[in-house]
C-alpha cells in the first residue's frame, strides 16, 4: 500500500460470541429466551436479538439448498461469523472482525478504513469455535447434561462462568493451521525409556487402584495417554496452553541433569501437585481437584484431574469423581510417585541428550515445516516457537502461514493423496504433501530454486525427519 | 471490494506500452520463462485489440471509467417500454426460431422443493432490490419468489449495519451475493469454486442483462417503479443467460479473459484483416469475423477498444441463436464494458449459409443497417477474389490441433495466454477428456489454478499439483499465463522441461495461433 | 504338611545283605560300591554298585579279618587289607594270573590306616607315619613305589572326584595337609589349620574325622568342618565352616553356615546344596552358599528353608528279603545305624540299604516367601525349569498373585540367566565361526541348563494361558506382558514376535486400539513382516492399522513387493506405481499386474494413465511403445482401443 506513513493496522478481533437455542423462544416477543450466552454482555438487548435472528435466518436459508449440511460461516465486508451446532438446536456463533487498515485522510476527513477480507481463514476460526465447545465440554459435560441437571438456569450459569474466563484466553490474531489440526506433540523417546515409563504407569495404577487413567508428558509433549484420543486431544490443549504455562518456572532441561545417586536413593524428590493442594504440609490445604468429563461406554464419565509434576515430567492421574479424595490419598500418591517420577525425569533427560548428541548438532536447516497425522494426531512444527498460553509465535511471515492454510483447505476438499508446490510472489516456495492421512507442509527460502531442487529438498527433509514412516512420493 | 480500488487505476491500454520496433527486437527466438509482456509468444506487434485484460478483476472496474472514453453512440431515444418490448420482441422471434438443442424448457418447470432441483451444481438468481425475481437458472421465478425475498432480506439486513454481505459457506456448498444496484445477483454453487470465481460469473450475468437493456434504462425503470417486474422486458432472452452460464463452465476464454483464434497462416489472416479494413464506414466501430467460438480477425476504429467481455457477450449472442443464419440480422446491443449507457447496433450475418464464418459489424447508428450490409458486400467481393478465402475455409476444417503435436507424451492439455494480446491458445481435449463431465472437470481444475494464481491478497507465481487424476502446473509471469495438464505419472522434472519445450513450440506456431498484427481503420 | 518335605531318599536304593556277625559290610566312596564279605570272603563277597554293571560276586580265601576292601577304578584290581602292615591284591583282569600278591608298607613299624585307589592301577597307602604312592603291575604281580612322604597322621579323608587326600596332623589334629594325585604324580598342597572352638589343655587330639568332610560345591572343592556348639563361647548353636581348597594357592575359610541347633549332625551335598542332618530333632537343613544374605555378614549363611525332616520312606516289597504278604515297613529315618557319605549317600548297614539323597523343589516354593530369593534359589537347581514356570504362573494368578514390582524382579532374574546363556552361545558361535582350529583347545559348547527359561517357555507355559484368563483384568495382563517385554529389552534380548502378537491380541480384544497405536508409535513392538501382516488384518476393525503396517513394511526396507501388493489391494494403482518408481523398480515390474489392477477399478482414466505410462516404458526400454507378447497384455491393448480408439495408442514416432 502506498503512503504507509501513519497507517494503522488492526489485527482480527473478537466482536461477539453467543450461544442460542431457537426452540427456547419460539413465539413472538420471546426471542430473548433463545439467548443462553452473549458476549459482550453489555450489548443492548434488541441488538442481541437482531444478531441472533440473522444467524437463524442464514441457517434456515442455507437449508433450502443443502438441508443436510448446515451453514458454517457468513462472510461480510467487515467481519466473519462462524456457526457451530454442537448439540441439536444449540448454536454457537463467533463473530470476528476482519483485520483492517486505517488510512489517515488529509484535510481532516475521518480516516478511511480498508477491511482486509481475505485474511481470515474459515478453517482456522471454525476450528477455534469447535475448540471452545470441546473445552467447555471437558470441564462441564454437554449442554444437555446441564439441562437435565438444572434446566436452562443452570446451563446459563455454567456458560457464564466458563466462557467469561475462557474468551479472555482466546488470541484470535495468533490462530493458524495448528488450531485446525488441534494436534498433539509427542516426545521422541527411545524404546527402553518408554518401556520404563510404561512400567511406571502400570505400577502406580496398580498400587493406587483408584486411578482410572493416566497420561504422561515430558517438556509439554505427550508420551503416554490412557485416555481415548479425542479426550486426550482437548486435555492436552488445556495442559499445554493453560495449566503448564501458568506453572512454568525455570524447569528447563538444565535442572533435569541426571541426579546424584544419593539424591535418588532416598526419598528427596521434586514432585508437586499442579492441581489440588499446592503444599501438602499446609494443614489448611484443600484436596479439591478440577473435574473433567471424558467419553465412556455409557456417554461420558466425570473424573478428578490430578496433575503431578516433577521437573519436566508431568503425570496426569484421573480418578472417578464419585470418590472423595483425601489428604491421606494425596500424601500416599506424593510419596509413591514423587521419587519415581523424579528419577524418570532425569532418565528421560539423559536419554534425550544422548539421542540429541547422536543425531548431531542441529544446523539451521534451509526449511521450516509442519507435520500432522490425522491417525494419531501427532503434530510437529519447526515454524512455531514454544506455544504459550498467550501467543504462539511463528517464525515465518503470516502470509506464508495463510498459504499453508489455503493448501490445507485444498487437501480437505477431496480425500486423495496429493502434493502441491507453489511459489509465492515473495519467492518463497511452499510445499504441501498429503499421503494417507498425513500432511506435511514445508516452507523453503530458496529464491532461485526450481521445482526439481525444491523436490530434492523435501526428499531430504523426509529422509532425515520422516524416514520411519511411509510417505508416498 | 478492495479489488475495485486497486484495479481502477490500471491503465486501460497497457497493451501498447512498447513501440513496435522495440517489441520486434525483444522477440527472442526461444522464449525465456521471464518473458516480459509484449515479447511473449503471441504478443501483439502493432496494437492490441482489447483493453489490456490482465485478469477478471477488470470486470469490477466501474462502468463510468470506460464511459468517458467511449464516443457518444446515439442514446436510445426516450425509454418508452414498447420500444424496448419491440426490440425484445425481435429477439423472442429469434427465440422461437432458435433450434438450439440445449433448450432448457425441461429444467424450467422443475419443482423447486425437489431433490433434483437442489442437487444442481450451480444456481444463479437475479432479483431486483425490491426482492422481485428476475431470473433463475432452474425452476420458475414464481415458485422462487419467497426464496428470493429471503435473499433480499439478508442483503438489506446486513446493509442496515453499514456492512455488505459477501457469501455464506456450508460444507460443499456456498452462496455468493453480488449487489449491482438496481440488481442483486446470487449464486449458489456446489462446485468448490472460489468466491471470486463465482463473483466473476455473476458479473458476466450482470453484464449480459445490461447488454440487453443498458444500465441507464435499468436504473430509469426502477427509479420509476420500485417493484417493476423486469421479466416483462427480458422475456424470451433468458436463453442468452442460460447459454452464457454454460459457456462459463466450458469456455477457457471467459476464465482467462481472453479469446482464442482460428489457427490460420498469418499471410491469409492479414489478407482477411485488410479486406475488412477496406470495407469501412462512417459509423462502423468494430468489424469482427468469427468462426464458431473462434476469432478470425477483428478490425476496429482507431483508439476504440473492444473489451473481451463485450466480445464474449457478442460471441454468446451469436452462438446462442441460429436465427442469424436466416439472413442479415440487425440488433441493438449494449457493450457494457464500452459504455453501459447506450446501444450499439450490430449487423450479424454468415458469409455463406452453411459456413461457420460469421461477420459482425458494430455501428453506432441505428439507421445504419444498409450501410453495414453494404460494407459486408464490399468485404465479400474483396475477399472472394483472394486465395486467402480458400485458405480460411481450409482452416475451418481443422479449427483446432492435437496436443500430440507438441511431442510431450505425458502432456495431456494446456492453456496458454499471451497477456499483451489478450489471446490464448489451447489444443483440443485428448481422448480421456472426451465426455462433457471430464471436460468440465478439467475446466474446474483450471479454474482452481486460476483463482490460486490470482488470489486477491496472496497471488502466486507458480503452482504445481500432483493428484490422483492428473498433475497440473500453472505459471504466471508478467508476459503470459500458462496452465498445463499432465498424466499423474509424469515427473516434476518432466513438467519443468515441458514448460520450456512448450513455449518454444508455441513461439514456432505463434503466427498461426495469434493475431500478431491487428488492424484499425 | 507332606508336600513340605523338600528332601527325600532315592526311590530304588541299592540293597545288600545287612551287616551281621558273619557278614561284614564295607563301602568304597570311590566306586560307590558296597562290599558284603561273608566269613572273611570264604563264603563269598557280594559287591553292589550304583548300577548292576558294577555289581560283582566272587569268593576269596579267608586269610583273616578284612579291615578294608576296595576295587581299583573299573574293577580291575581288588585290594584287601587284613593286617596293619600290608595290603593284598587280586587281579580281576581276564587271563591275568589270579593268585594274590601282597605289598607291605615301606616305612618301618608304621601302621596302615587305610588305602585309596587314585586310578585303575595307582594306589595310596596312608600310614600313621605318612603316605606311600604306588603303581601296581598286575602282570608282574608287583608294586612300584612312585612317591612317599613321611608325616604323622591321626586320620585321613579321601575325596574321589578330586583325588585329594586330606591328612590330619599334629597332636590336636587340627592342622590338615592335603595331597592331590593325578596320573602318577603326587602334589603336596598348602596345609591349613582349622580353628577349634576350644584349645584343650593338655593338648590332645581334638578334631575328629567325623567332623570333617570334603566335597565339591559349584565346582569348587571345600573342606567342611562341623564346628560344635561350645558352652564357653556362647554361640547360638553349632556351625558348619567351609574352607575353600583351591587346586593351587592357599586354602581359606570362606563360608559359615549357622545351624542354630546343637547335637549330632551329619553332612551331605545335594545339587550343590549343603544338607545338614540333625539327629535329635530328626530334621535336616539346607544351605546354598551362593545365596547372599543381605542382613548378615558376607560369608555367613542362614538355612534357606526352615528345618524339615526327610520325606518318610517305606521299605519297598521288592528285593530278596521280601516276602509277598509282608506290608511295606516304614523305615526309621535318622537312625543311629545310618552312616552318611559324601556327597549324597546314606547307608543303613543294619537294614542293608544304600540311598541317594535328593532335593524336591516343589515344596520349597511355599516355604520361601521372598519370590526374588526363591528365584535365585531355584535357578541354581538341576531340575528347576517346570518349578520355575509354575512359580511364574502362580505369581500372576490366583490368590498368590504378586505385585508388579515382584513380577518384574522375577522376570529380570530369569532373563539375566537367559541372557548369559545367549551370550555364551554367541561367543561360542563366533569362536567356531572364526575357525579357532589352531590349538584344539577351542572352547566347548555352553551347556543349556534347565535354568535357561527362554521366551517360548514363558509363552507356552505361562503367558499364553495367563492372557486367556477371564478372572484377570486386562489392565494387569497388559502390564505383565509389557513388563516381560521391558525386561527382555533391558537385557538386550530380541523379543519374539509371538509376544507382540500376544500384546496386540489382548489390546484388540479389549478395543484398546489407541494404546496399541501408541506402542507402535514408539516402536515398542519391533517391526517384522508377520507383525505388519497382523496389523493389516486389523484394518477392518481399526482403519489406522493400515497406515501402521505400511510404515512398518517401509522401515523393514526389504518389503517393497509387499507394499506394492498392499497398495494394489487398496486399488491405489497410481500410488503403487509411484512407489515402485521411487525405489527404482519401475522398469522391471509386470505391466500386466498393474493393468489388471487398473482395469479392476473400473476407472477409465486410471486405466488410460497406467496403460500409457507402460507404453512409454516400452518406448524407453525398446524404442517401441507396443507390448511384448511375453507380457500378455493383448486383452488390455484391445480394451484400451475399445475405450479410447486406435489413435489414442502411443505412436512409435513420438519422442
UniProtKB/TrEMBL annotation, chain A:
Residues 211-337 form the CCZ1/INTU second Longin domain. It comes from the Eukaryota. Residues 363-461 form the CCZ1/INTU/HPS4 third Longin domain. One of its GO terms (cellular component) is Mon1-Ccz1 complex. Belongs to the CCZ1 family. Signal peptide: none annotated. GO terms for biological process: vesicle-mediated transport. Residues 15-141 form the CCZ1/INTU/HSP4 first Longin domain. Transmembrane segments: none annotated. InterPro entries: Ccz1, CCZ1/INTU/HSP4_longin_1, CCZ1/INTU/HSP4_longin_3, CCZ1/INTU_longin_2. This is CCZ1 homolog, vacuolar protein trafficking and biogenesis associated. The lineage of its organism: Eukaryota, Metazoa, Chordata, Craniata, Vertebrata. It comes from Fundulus heteroclitus (Killifish).
Automatic annotation (TrEMBL), chain B:
Residues 66-81 have a biased composition (Basic and acidic residues). GO terms for cellular component: Mon1-Ccz1 complex. GO terms for biological process: protein targeting to vacuole; vesicle-mediated transport. Residues 1-114 are annotated as: Disordered. Residues 410-510 form the FUZ/MON1/HPS1 third Longin domain. Residues 122-244 form the FUZ/MON1/HPS1 first Longin domain. Residues 282-381 form the FUZ/MON1/HPS1 second Longin domain. Belongs to the MON1/SAND family. Plays an important role in membrane trafficking through the secretory apparatus. This is Vacuolar fusion protein MON1 homolog.
Automatic annotation (TrEMBL), chain C:
Pfam families: RMC1_C (PF07035), RMC1_N (PF21029). One of its GO terms (biological process) is regulation of autophagy. This is Regulator of MON1-CCZ1. Residues 381-628 form the Mic1 domain. PANTHER family: COLON CANCER-ASSOCIATED PROTEIN MIC1 (PTHR12897), REGULATOR OF MON1-CCZ1 COMPLEX (PTHR12897:SF4). The lineage of its organism: Eukaryota, Metazoa, Chordata, Craniata, Vertebrata. Residues 25-143 form the Regulator of MON1-CCZ1 complex N-terminal domain. One of its GO terms (cellular component) is lysosomal membrane.
